[in-house]
Amino acid sequence: MTRASECREWLRQNPGWHFSSDVLDALGKKGWRERQPYGWALSNAAALGMLGKQGSGKTVRYCYLAEPKRPACGGWLARVQA
Question: Which of 20, 25, 43, 55 sits between 20 and 30 A of 33, alpha carbons compared?
Fold first, then answer.
């Protein structure tokens, strides 16, 4: 399971708005070396529209919106072969 999918799954199971620290604490991530990539994953998932994002700086909160959309054509291989 990827970092982003772990975060999305936790947010899906716990509806509402949550600070990234709440998500990372619940996932058992300790120390900045372990937490930083998960923070990036949350931010990227919000930028892609999979998570809602509210606030700025240290007051950003996230909520679950949707699973990532998979390409209908079968992925990059189908596009290369076309």
Answer: 55
* Residue 40 placed within a domain: yes
Q: Write down the H helix ranges in the chain.
A: 3-13, 20-26, 32-47, 76-81
Q: Which residue type sits at 71?
A: P
Give the whole-angstrom CA distance, residue 52 versus residue 76.
Answer: 27
pLDDT tens sequence across 13-63 = 999 999 999 999 999 999 999 999 999 999 999 998 899 999 998 899 999
Domain containing 24: what range? 3-64
Give the chain's domain count: 1
Sequence-distant (≥ 6) Cβ neighbours of residue 1 within 8 angstroms = 9
- CATH number for the domain harbouring residue 52: 1.10.10.580
Kindly state whether residue 8 falls inside one of the protein's structural domains. yes
